[in-house]
Amino acid sequence: MDAESIPLARPEIGAREEELVLEVLRSGRLSLGPMGERFERALAEWLGVGDAVAVSSGTTGLHLGVRALGWGAGDEVLTSPFSFVASANCLLYEGARPVFCDVDPQTLNLDPAAVEAALGERSAGILPVHIFGFPAAMPELEAIASSHGLGLLEDACEALGAVDSEGCRVGARGNVAIFAFYANKQMTTGEGGVVVPPSPEVAARLRSERNQGRAADMGWLDHDGLGFNYRLSDLAAALGVAQVERLDDLLARRGAAAALYERGLAGIDGVTAPIAARGAERRSWFVYPVRLAEGIDRDAVVERLAGRGIASKAYLPCIHLFPHLRELGWREGQFPVAEAAAARSLALPFFPAMSEAQVARVCEALAGSLS
Ligand SMILES: Cc1ncc(COP(=O)(O)O)c(C=O)c1O
Predict the structure, then answer these.
(1) Which of 35, 43, 92, 133 has CB atoms 3.0–4.6 Å from 286's, for a disulfide?
(2) Alpha carbon distance 121, 107 (integer Å)
(3) Mean pLDDT of the chain
């Protein structure tokens, strides 16, 4: 792509990030230093929760979350097929079986009625994903979970800052919830994640397991159980502290870019924009996924946009159709709503610094690329 190209995502890293990373470098405490705790406190405070446990990625956070809920061999966990593959893989790591349920056509999140219909004797829990930053139907899913004695793990990797139908910030309902900070996310630490623990006991277990099974009062070669190296480095935590400081601004600017898109796409036949809100629910803008009408050749659109220097991506493939999940018996046609979304969604360039001119250029190019 040439200099005028517009990427799919672009993180915002500035002087404050440089300053704090330098502070860590100069301190010599590159891991397990004070910056890690500073990041955890800053993020917990921003979320309005009691604690946050930093980990090396969203995926490792999900893995620890599955372990914290005790899901393992013989357990079935109801989850969304319209997600990033890590939300199902984290169950497979522990020998639990993902049981996919179809999604709501508007929010693309788990449909509570489909969850209810898929309950079985082996159901041990529900793993909702707040996809594309839109809050999942948590009150309804919590009601199902509590009436059937199921655990709940929220994959909030794409939804930092979203607000649910009861006005509650995603991740702050008292369930185990995981956020992720890859470079395209609402805020980034390069790689990284955070687990919101439901209690101090779970927090202690998470901190031990991310650190090779070492409790807080143990020496380096002492271990009180199976553990992993899922620690977040202090360099990454320094980025995180700086990003939390400007998180409100980053989210507001993502919202502004989304509003520009909504206006720019209005009137383009065959392109449906994602919703920003529904009742009290508020999306936290992560990517900008439009839906193309049936009959439009999405691959050709991607190619034509690329020819004009504009990145775009078919987003997301259904995860029940990947080979390692097909091996477990999942097939095409089982989840028509999710499969239709997967066939027709297209992510457009989206980042806080997108200018009005860039959004206009993408909209114009898209309109000219549909046939
Ligand atoms: C829904 C969802 N779950 C899990 C993850 C995994 O996060 P990470 O890439 O930090 O491991 C992501 C990130 O891309 C995600 O979008």
Answers:
(1) 133
(2) 28
(3) 97
pLDDT above 70 covers what percent of the chain?
99
Task: Report the pLDDT averaged over residues 281-306.
Answer: 98
Cβ atoms within 10 Å, residue 122: 12
Ligand 1 centroid – CA 118 distance (Å): 25
Instruction: Compute the CA torsion angle 57, 63, 65, 66 (nearest 10 deg).
Output: 160
Pocket residues for ligand 1 (CB within 6 Å)? Answer: 57-59, 83-84, 86-87, 129, 155, 157-158, 180, 182, 193
Active site residues: 185
- Coil, strand or helix: which one is 230? coil
- 154-168 burial, b for 16+ CB within 10 Å, e for fewer? bbbbbbbbbbbbeeb
Average pLDDT over residues 268-294: 97
Which residue carries 């997967």 as its tokens?
342
Q: Decide if 79 contacts 101 (C-beta within 8 A).
A: yes
Instruction: Count other C-beta atoms under 10 Å from residue 225's C-beta.
Output: 11
Q: Which of 82, 93, 158, 195 to probe ligand 1 with, by most ligand atoms within 8 A of CB?
A: 158
Helix or strand or coil: residue 298?
A: helix
Dihedral sign of CA atoms 85, 86, 88, 92 in order: positive
At residue 1, does pLDDT exceed 50?
no
Decide if 126 contacts 77 (C-beta within 8 A).
Answer: yes
Half-sphere exposure of 327 (CA within 13 A, CB side): 5
131 alpha carbon – ligand 1 mean position (Å): 10
Residue 2: pLDDT over 50: no
CA of 357 to the centre of ligand 1 (A): 30
* Helices 298-307 & 356-367 angle (0-180, nearest 10): 130
Q: What spacing in Å lies between the alpha carbon of 207 and ligand 1's midpoint?
A: 20
Closest ligand 1 atom to residue 129 Cα is 1
Q: Which of 157, 158, 187, 194 to mutate to test the pocket of ligand 1 (most atoms within 8 A of CB)?
A: 157
Contact 98, 92 (CB under 8 A): yes
Amino acid at 112: P
Residue 2, helix vs strand vs coil: coil
- Spatial distance between the Cα atoms of 112 and 143, rounded to a whole number of angstroms: 10
